[in-house]
Amino acid sequence: MPTPLRTRALTAILTLGTILPPALAQPPTTPPTARQTPEEKTAAARATFQQALDTARAQRRVLVVTYSNSQSNVKANRAMLASIPTQAWLDRHALVIDITDQPLIVELIQAGMPMQPGLDPLLLIDGKPVPIVAPHNPSRKAPPETLAGSLALAQRLNWSVQTSQLDNAKSFADDNTRAAQQVKLQLPPPLHTTGTGTGKDRIEPFAPDPAKPADILAVLAEARANFKSRPLHAAAIYTWLWEAGDAANPAFTPTRLSTIAAEMHALAKANPPVATHFRALRDAQARRTDLRTYASIYEYLILNRVIEDHLHNLEFYDASLARDDAKAIIPPDDAEAHERLLPLCHFNDPTQNASDPWRAPVRFLNRANNLQARKDQTTHAELIDFYRWLARLEAARRYAWVLPAPNDPSPKPARAQAIIQHVLPMDDTPEFRNMLTLAARASAKAPPADLQPKP
Q: Is the whole model's pTM more than 0.85, yes or no?
């Protein structure tokens, strides 16, 4: 197919300058000196830009470009890229270069590559300009702390890479994913090891007794015992449960994302220092969230609900999925995963408007099995994994919700038993049995003995 006009123009601009060899490092900028003529400064800026292109190609990363020819533009561009999820995505998948040389900016704009400071950066894939999809126009002005947790630009960049119309788009996106998996992000230490705040608002670090294995239900009981009398200490314990609970007990995930999240929300709502602490926990989670792993997005959105800062991100996804061109700008598996994820991403009654609470988990497992049976199953691996993960999560939290409590005056065990009868045969593993059992016990319910993992 013919070379696009913008690509030919970009090539013409760059061949006017020095072509530098690829380098496996962030592209350096060449600071202008007082002895340089304006022409030499532009040539140096052009060479730095070329080196950035070569570096991005060599690393199979995208190149994100901003234009900053004034202090106001510098400020606007920094704000545009400042959200924690955006910074994490850029660290995984991209190189970033800010062009400050006015003649070079003019050349690039005249070549058909405009970039408005503070709105969207310029995105180059394999050296070619690509439009950023799904413009985001929030319905309300978000406060700075909400913008710090915004997924919008990071998700739009991610979708743009995966749906670009370039000839080698699929192979580049795959290479870019593999390259991102090798990146070791600079992550803050777990919040339960550092604590937050000062003085009377100080939330101290917490960890169970290191001399013995952590009993996850005993730790939860300690958090609950301190819920009203020592809320800051309870917050420290819940932080450990959120950050380290799954490592201590892999069956804990459904409980953490339902029962624990709901209790964290209640604690934060009643105690402003706890809300501030959990916001710091959300910000740390933002750094770890991988937009190419649907379960990671789900966990992040749940933590946003804990601090009641979820509307901005949910509105972005709702608006993107509702667009007339959604099928063209959102990868099909992403669209399918988010259509399933968003309505379930809460910690309220999971059986509301569901006469048969077993149906959704069974539907998810059937969909995973159908995808697994396809010849192109490898291209749907992430979606298959997500459906199996979501089925376990939904089955466990629904089972815990409908299972009667020991002192229930009008027990109705049939709905709980139906989950066991319909879902368990499709995933009869020790791991899933443990998830069902732990979710029930964390809700002060007594699951039947025959639910224990088979020897």
A: yes
- Which residues lie across from 124 on neighbouring strands? 63, 129
For residues 209 and 317, give the distance between their C-alpha atoms in angstroms, rounded to a whole number. 42
Joined together, the tokens standing for residue 412 give 């109705």
Task: Find the Cα–Cα–Cα–Cα dihedral 29, 32, 37, 39, rounded to 10°.
Answer: 20
CA-wise closest residue to 388 among 439, 422, 337, 447: 337
Asked if 350 contacts 398 with a C-beta cutoff of 8 angstroms, the reply is yes
Structure tokens at 54: 């070569």
Amino acid at 46: R
Q: Let me know: does 180 contact 92? Beta carbons within 8 Å.
A: yes
Per-residue confidence band for 14, with pLDDT thresholds at 50, 70 and 90: low
Number of C-beta neighbours around residue 233 at 10 A: 17
The pLDDT tens digits for 259-317 are 999 999 999 999 999 999 999 999 999 999 999 999 999 999 999 999 999 999 999 99
Q: According to the 3-state scheme, what is the secondary structure of the chain?
A: CCCCHHHHHHHHHHCCCCCCCCCCCCCCCCCCCCCCCHHHHHHHHHHHHHHHHHHHHHHCCEEEEEECCCHHHHHHHHHHCCCHHHHHHHHHHEEEEEECCHHHHHHHHHCCCCCCCCCCCEEEECCEEECCCCCCCCCCCCCHHHHHCCCHHHHHHHHHHHHCCCCCHHHHHHHHHHHHHCCCCCCCCCHHHHCECCHHHCECCCCCCCCCCCCHHHHHHHHHHCCCCCHHHHHHHHHHHHHHHHHHCHHHHHHHHHHHHHHHHHHHHHCHHHHHHHHHHHHHHHHHCCCCCHHHHHHHHHHHHHCCCCHHHHHHHHHHHCCCCHHHHCCHHHHHHHHHHHHHCCCCCCCCCCCCCCHHHHHHHHHHHHHHCCCCHHHHHHHHHHHHHHHHHHHHHHHHHHCCCCCCCCCCCHHHHHHHHHHHHHCCCHHHHHHHHHHHHHCCCCCCHHHCCCC
In whole angstroms, give the CA distance from residue 219 to residue 441: 13
Dist. CA 46–CA 50, nearest whole Å: 6
